[in-house]
Amino acid sequence: MVGIEEVRHLAYLARISIKDEELRLYAEQMDEILAYFNMLDELNVSDDVEPYRMCRAYNEMRDDVPVAFSDNVLSNAKNTKGRFIKAPKMSS
Amino acid sequence: MVGTSRFALNAYELVNEIKNGSISVEDYIASMFERIRKMDERINAYITLNEHALEEARIVDKALKGYTEWKGYSNGNGNGNSSILLGVPLAVKDNISTQGIRTTCASKMLEDYVPVYDATVVKRLKDAGAIVIGKTNMDEFGMGSTTEFSAFGVTHNPWAYERVAGGSSGGSAAALASCMAGIALGSDTGGSVRCPASFCSIYGLKPTYGLLSRYGLISYANSLECIGLMARSVLDLALMLKVTAGSDMQNDHTSIDADTSLSLDPESISPDIKGMRFATIREVVESEGIDEPVRDSMLDAISSVEQLGAIVEEVSIPSLRYALASYYTIAMAEASSNLARYDGIRYGYTEEPDGVAWNEFYSTIRGNFGSEVKRRIMLGTYVLSSGYYGRYYMKAQKARALIRDDMLKVLKDYDAIMMPTMPILPPRIGERVSDPLRLYNIDVCTVLANLAGVPALSIPYSMYNGLPIGVQFMARHLDEPLLLRIAYALESARCDKVRRCII
Questions:
Q1: Which residue has the higher pLDDT, A63 or B451?
Q2: Pairing mode, if any, of strands B456-464 and B46-49?
Q3: Cα separation of B450 and B311, whole Å?
Q4: Topology annotation, domain B4-271+426-433+445-493
Q5: Considering only Cβ atoms within 10 Å of each terminal Cβ, which end of chain B, N or C, has fewer?
Q6: Which residue of chain A has the CA closest to B394?
Q7: If you ran DSSP here, which 8-state letter would residue B390 be given?
Q8: d(CA B501, CA B176)
C-alpha cells in the first residue's frame, strides 16, 4: 500500500514540498483513507452503467466582444517588472 | 429600537424597521461593528471586515430619505428585487469573491489576495440592498467539517465555546448564531453549509446544483459544490433565494433558468405540509455512527411532522454504503486539478523567483498549503494516476450515478427524504482533527445531496444539553419551495422550543 516513497512521489507529481519528518504520518493517513476507498472496488457494476455526468448542462453562447486589457488583471501579481511578470526559469 | 435585541431581528423584520425609519442603517452597521469587535475575539467568525461598510450604509440611508434613487451599488440590476434586503448586514464566506475585500479561502496561499470583481450572488445581494459586513472563517479551501483547518485559527461555537461551529462554513454560521450578521453566504461541497447550520442552530440551504451561479466562488470540486444560503428564519432564506437564483451569463453552463420554473415569492410560502410524504432511510437510521441524542431528536422530528399531517415511511437505499468513498474520491480528484492553479505567479503567496528552478519554485510555494489540503491534493493525484484511475475514479463516478438514480427513484414516490443533518453533536475543538478518516465519516448524511445534485435544507430542530441538533430534508431538483414549506411548518410549530441565536 502507500509507503513513504510513494508519498514522496505523489508530492513530487503534485509539486508540493513536504518535510521528510511528515512523510510517515501522511503515508499512514493516506493508506487508511485509500483502504476505505477500496470498497469501491467491490462495487459490482456492469459496463453499461454510465458514469455520472452533470445533468442539465447546456451552453449559452454570448457574443465574442474584445475588451481592452485592464491593469486590474495584474493587480495581485507581486513579482512584476514594468509591464512584465517575473517567473522562475523553466530550462536549466 | 434600542438594546441588543435589535441584532437578533430577522432580516425581513430589520428591513421593515429600516424602511419605516425606526433604524438608521449607518447606526445599525456601526453598532454591529462594535458588537463584532467585542464578541469576535472569543468566537473568531470573521477573517476580514469590510472597511467600506459604513460608506455603503450611508448610501442606503440617503436613498431612504429620498435624496437619491436606490439602484443598487452596481448600476442597478433591479429585477424587481431592488430593495428587499435594504440595509441587511451580510456575512460572506471567504471563498466567495468580493471586489476590493481580501478573500483568503482561510489559506496562507491567498492571505493577501484581493479580487477585482464580485461573485454574481454577492453582486445580486448588494443590488438588493444588503451590506457586506465581512468575510468569514472556514476550513482552508472548504476542505473540512469543523473550521479547524483554517490558517486563521478555529471558529468557536457560540452555544458552547469549547466546541467547533462546524464547517467548512463555520464562520458564517457562528456569525449568524451570535447576531454578528443578518444573513450569510456559505458554500456546500459535501455539507459545508448544512453542517455548521446544524451545529449553530440556524437554517442552511444547499440549493439545486446550478440554481445559483458559481461565478466568483473559488473552485474546490466543481461537480459537487454550490453556493449556499444561511439565515435565522425561513422567510429570510426565501428572500435570499429570490434575489440570488437564476441564470447568469458569466456561469452559463451550470445555471438553470429558474425564473420560469420556481415560485419564490416569500408571501406564497405556506406552513402547510398536510399529506406530504417523507422517506427516512434505513441505512441511515440504523447506522451505528449516529449519537443517541441525535437519534432521539430525529424520532421526535418524525412525530412532529406526522402531527402536522405528513406521512413518514422507511425505505432502503443499499447503494448509500458507497456514498462517502464515492464523494471523497471525486472531491479529491477535482481538488487536485483545481488547485494546480496556485503557482505563485499571478496571485497569492510567492517568493523571489530569481535564480530558482521552476519545479523547485512551484513546490516550495505550494508547500504553504495546510495539511488537509496537501493530503487531498496528493490523494486526488493518486486516484487519477494511470494505474488507479479505473479502480477508484471511474468506480466512484459509477457509484455516484447509482446513488443519484436510487435517490431520484425514492423522490418519485416521496416528496422529500428526511434524516439528521449531522450524525453527532458538535465535537469539542481538537477531538477529531487528528484522524482524517474519522472526520470524513461525519459527512455521511450530507454528501448525498451533493452527489445527486438535489437541494437540501438543514432546519434547527432541538437542543441537547445546550447543544443544537438539526434535521435535514432533501427534495427533487428545483423543489426548493417545498423545502421552504416544510421548514416554515416546523418553524411555526416549534417557535417556542428552538432558539436560533444567542445574544
A1: B451
A2: unpaired
A3: 25
A4: Amidase signature (AS) enzymes (3.90.1300)
A5: N
A6: A51
A7: I
A8: 7
